[in-house]
Design brief:
single chain; alpha+beta; 4-stranded antiparallel beta sheet; 11 helices; rod-shaped
Amino acid sequence: MGKTNYSVGDKYGRLTIREIFKRPTGNKGRVIKYVKCKCDCGGESITTITHLRDGRTQSCGCYLMERLIKHKMCSTPEYYTWANMKDRCLNNKNKRWNRYGGRGITVCGRWLNFKNFYEDMGEKPAGKTLDRINNNDGYYKNNCKWSTPSEQQNNLISNVYIEFNGVKKTVSEWSDSLKIKRETINARLNRGWDVDEILRRGLGKRRKKYNFMDTNKTKSEWAKILGITTNTINLRKKRGLPINKILTSERWAK
């Protein structure tokens, strides 16, 4: 910055001199020296050599834009998302490093600049977070989207798929469509339940089935077939009656 001489190729801030020329001021033949520069971001800038050397011009304008955006948006959800994305991929002290940077998940060079990230992704929709389409690839425009928590859950490597009535969905998708907690479905899977029992809405405990005449049905199903109440079945069972006396349509089974 303290140079008295300057030449093509010299760099000041983000600007590299590409051309030096003079322009008259119209003031008694006085001329001013200008430089045409290439910015690190790829843009161009024309400024006076004085402004370049004293630091008043440091870029093509991108530096000021970044500062303005950062100042206005540093408390926004978009900036928070961007900062956290970089930290878990670039900071080996981050508690989630092993799941991101530690296993090769990177941030593209363009997205190291918040302005570029914001241009590519836009505003963060309410209720959504930054998601990678390919869970094994890094963060860049064509591999990222804003997703709901359920959509992100469906993108996990460890997802379990359940096929029922010809439809194949993840645990999260079945949870959403049937209004059953994911934890409940996973617990039923771990107990070895049949698919129809796993996905039965509102089922608290596994329903016992009664085998009668080579037919397995639940208490409610038998009650409906026989035209009796489940309470009647319970009372007959409590009296110790055999299965043929429990599951009969006769009102006064003995």
